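sorry for the late reply, my laptop died twice this morning and i had to redo everyting from scratch. anyway the thing you sent over, i finally got around to it. pasting the sequence first so we're on the same page, its 537 residues, then the predicted structure underneath. double check i copied it right bc i was rushing
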Amino acid sequence: MKLTLKGLQDVQEWKKAGIEVPSYDVAAVVERTRKAPQWVQFGIGNIFRIFLGGIADQLLEEHVIDRGIVCVETFDFDVVDKIYEPYDNLALSVILHNDGTTKKKVLGSLAEAIKAQSDQPEQWGRLKEVFCAPSLQIVSFTITEKGYALTKSDGTYPDFIRADIENGPEKSVSAMAVVTAMLLERYRSGAKPLALVSMDNCSKNGDKLRSSVLEMAEKWKEKGFVDDGFLAYVGDESRISFPWTMIDKITPRPSEKLADQLEAAGVEAMQPVITSKRTYIAPFINAEGPQYLVIEDHFPNGRPALEKAGVYMTDRETVNKSERMKVTVCLNPIHTALGPYGCVLGYELFSDVMKDPQLLELARRVGYVEGMDVVQDPGILSPKAFLDECINERFTNPYLGDTCLRLATDASQGLGVRFGVTIRSYVEKYGDAKKLEAIPVAIAGWLRYLLAVDDKGTPFELAPDPMVPEMREQMKSIEFGNPSSLKDQLKSVLSNENVFFIDLYQAGIGEKVEEIFRQEIAGPGAVRKTLEKYMGS
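ok and here's the structure:
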């Protein structure tokens, strides 16, 4: 069986292998999409294909929509060449349930793949056609938070952004420049309305997207590339809207074991590839079953009936509360609390971490006790029910293959949102955060992980994180097995409001974090002993 339009014709073979195929005419969907596109997506990797592609596939199956998604890549063009084109833009969704069962379905909703290369006239011209279409309603994004950033941490433009500003719309390279250039085409072809919808996992994501588009437009105005009318167009949210969203679905990288199983079942060429840009991707996508998408319902040119596929369409305040609930209490803080500890204690899979009595207790206290005390209920989702599902079903799923090292990746970039927001809430509610114990244990665990020595004293490799070099330099005089070597090396980070959104010493827990960390560096077994002390034996 080949994952191509021709290969899908032998429906019985696919069914015999336990794989559903589209009941709709994929070729007809592609044709209608090309003629009158409604939905464009920037960032066409794993989470997009299985989550948003799955939503569109469901709506096609139920005859709610009759067109698919135009998939646009601005960063890693190998993804189009190696994963989209050879498979006729089809994708194989594999949902991994925690009882070991799977649901496999071929998705035919990814109708077209375009490389956003301004130096390729055919691709660039096609992208312009899509954006000029009056039928276009939604442009969604999963490009990660750094995809929206125009400046470096010091506030200056990196070379590629500076080049986009200097060279103008017709030579755009970065995602934000490409999007702004395409909005210019839409403006020139009648200034039709449109919704630009960030679905990346970051706070107030719509504002991040809007800010970057407006800044690029303003810089081009200064250079004479665009006029005041265009600035007014992109700045008017009744014409170009930037809804906020909350998105949640755990999507690990494709499993080689699953690729082997699919090939053994008769599906050809399923092995993952690693692109030149280090994207790990395969013709199939594996993910958990639970998923949440909450969208501010602000679509000036209309929208697909996304609510018929389980999407929550609501107001901005409810989106914000849903996002806060997830990233400050129920999901992300527990990942960041337990992932580094898992690495230090020698666990590979996060599902195994959830069997560890002390780490399970840490998860419970971070969520149910300390987080729930200050969480805002979004109304559409119950914080307790959401957390129950995470603790009892999602985190314990051994078939996902989610790793502690993945959860420690870029951990420093989320400390403020995942812990700092709750710490700040305690200061506002109680005058200080001294009541907190689990969150200080979590922060100490992250610092202990940065020593890159496990609880037996054996070195291990840290996950990628932009703060690691700086932190390793600050901590180089701290010696494993010598608690007295801890002096004031941690003060600069624990007091850094850019990291935690608050000075932990002023909040009343900086010294507590230091003391827990001091106990955890006493020698082999000290991490376990410290966890038993604070979380029970």
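The CA atoms of residues 227 and 316 lie 31 Å apart.
thats about all i looked at so far, will dig more tmrw
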